[in-house]
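pipeline: protein-struct stage 2 | run 1193 | Heparan-alpha-glucosaminide N-acetyltransferase
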Amino acid sequence: MTPEPAPTPKRPRIPVIDIARGVAIIAMVVYHLCWDLSYFRFIPVDVGYDPGWVLFARTILGSFLFLVGVGLSLGHADGIRWRAFWRRWLFVLAGALVITVTTWFAFPDSFVYFGVLHAIALFSLLALPFIRAPLWLPAITAAVFIALPLLHADPLFNERAWSWLGFWVVPPPANDLVPVFPWFGVVLLAVVVTRIARTRGWLDRLARIQPKNRLAGILVWLGRWSLVIYLVHQPLLLGIIYPLSATLRPDLAMRELDFLRACQQTCLAGGTDADRCTTYCQCGLEGVETNDLWNAVATGLVTAEEQALLDAQNRQCSILIYPELQSGD
């Protein structure tokens, strides 16, 4: 009877790579914490659209996907360890489905239908043939995936059904969307870099780096459990922030800042100096509060009675900054 082939040995872990994963998961938790604080109006910045925060999010995403490619290349370079691969893949897929179902109920208009975990599950499958293919093949394929979205866009991909591919003109509403183009190219780029590093002995040099301090140990631990941390951190954050928002009502304070900011911009655009605009807008805010006109201001749906109050308030605040208008009445 033919004996079963021995399983492909697993390469020893490289602490430096685990540390990189640990840093990436900390950055991800920080981003999601700030996103949650922004969503519930604890902080004024719109984390989902602010250019600096968007760049931060994409940097984190790129780091995560690059490390996915590194892990695949390290783990299966001497042969695909199918049992380990499918065990991890099914765990990622289950996590992706849980996130989809959860966000469907929490954010029905912007639920996560192809987020980070969905992408990792698909990209892991797609990358397997490239791990031991001729090096030029993943290199060229990575370049195509990364470059093509820069050269082509089509409104068809604005639709949810096709948006997971990329190429949109306007990104569709989703709290997390990681399209195949260009992000699969980042995974393949990591495969290429890791294979070159292994051939040239760079990985052996990295493996000899064994940090012993406490911070490094914590980062290594976080890196080894990064997938589990990714799955549980957002429910934990929301479990703290949501009750706080219901109790502290930061949206009420934030709407005042929004009102003053919008009023100031409109006033300055009309040619009034900054000091008078500040006085005028503060007067307007007091009037909105006193007469409970927040719904009218927020929706633009104004009753005749509310319009009369707004007109009277506008006259009163205008006289406050231009007293000479009083004699004109």
